[in-house]
Amino acid sequence: MGFSSWNNFGDNINETLFKQVIDSMDRNGLREAGFVYVNLDDGWQRYKGDRKDHPLEADPVKFPSGIKALADYAHGKGFKLGIYNGPGETTCAGYTGSANHEAEDAAMFASWGIDHLKYDACCSHENAPQEEVKNFITHVIADGPIFGSGLLQWVQINGGLVKTLVTISITLETVRSISLMSWICWIEGTTSLNTLAQGIGMIMILMLIVGLNGQSSQLLGTGASDVEYRSHFSLWAMATSPLLIGADARTLSTETLETLMNKEVIELSQDLMGAAAEVVREEPGDGGTLQVYAKEMSDGSYAVALLNRGSSTAEMSVSPRRDLTIDWDTYRLRDLWKHEDHGPYDITYTTEVMSHEAKVLRLYPITNGSST
Description:
Helix 4 runs parallel beside helix 5 (132-143), helix 7 packs parallel to helix 8 and helix 7 (226-238) packs parallel to helix 9 (263-270). Strands 9, 10, 11, 13, 14, 16 and 17 form a seven-stranded antiparallel beta sheet that branches. Strands 5-4-3-2-1-8 form a six-stranded parallel beta sheet. Strands 6-7 form a two-stranded antiparallel sheet. A hairpin with a 2-residue loop joins strand 16 (358-367) and strand 17 (370-371). It is of the alpha/beta class. The longest helix has 13 residues, at 15-27. It is built from ten helices and 17 strands. The chain folds into two domains: 2-270, TIM Barrel; 278-371, Immunoglobulin-like, CATH 2.60.40. It holds the Pfam family Melibiase_C. One of its GO terms (molecular function) is alpha-galactosidase activity.
């Protein structure tokens, strides 16, 4: 959980910006809520072009104190610093990549005190996922406690397959264009997000767009409503994806902060079981599909999201026997956005769900008069 610069700033990043982001996240409660990674995306490098002509080093104009000093600043405030690179000759934005310099670069990042690496294969050659990425990760593991993630395209590491994970683009046929719907379009055709997590047990869907409000320098669109942003955040959590803020963390509204810091929804993303939600039921709605997502939690409860992709409010329901295929006789539930408890029930639970809303529930069995 943390912040990443790309969605809002692209490669227009610098030391002052990151110190301001760190200070803001410290003041506004995001660090305390668990958002501790502050990640430099593409654009921190000094040179564009490959290593034949240029070394990999930080831009001295953008980062006059150097990356290690920025990492020290982050650590002093209780944060961790992340950095970006890739296995190609150049990165996605054309900056110097790590091709044929994996050991050297991994050692350099470790010496700077880097805590997280986004390793992006979008501009690498066809075999990079099988060779350079595996090579680099081997060196990262050897050189320090750096947590890796990224767009790796079918990387095989220790027998596990990591599928391509797609960057969101906020492009929709509707004028409100929300990346939530782009994400849904991406996963249409499969009923299980777990199919994207086979082999490593997790999904890395890239940065959140909550709070961008059409201000992104990289993504198209006019922004979304607070309800739509909340739905977007809910589904990222249901996917058990890392939660990386893509908006300007210095200027987040009260409503956006309330969405990002909902501890009960965050818990769905951070659950130790690591299960990703499945679409367990869907049916036609007014102008869009009504979908029920569900996943099992490590304590035996179930997280359920009722997503109304339609254009008007609709009645939606969940039944443990019908939708979760579990034989609970009675159950209780908690609405994770309203922070309300309901039940006990021995019948289907039905509720109204607004257009583009994802109502998130957590269901618990009741056995012998007590709930787990």
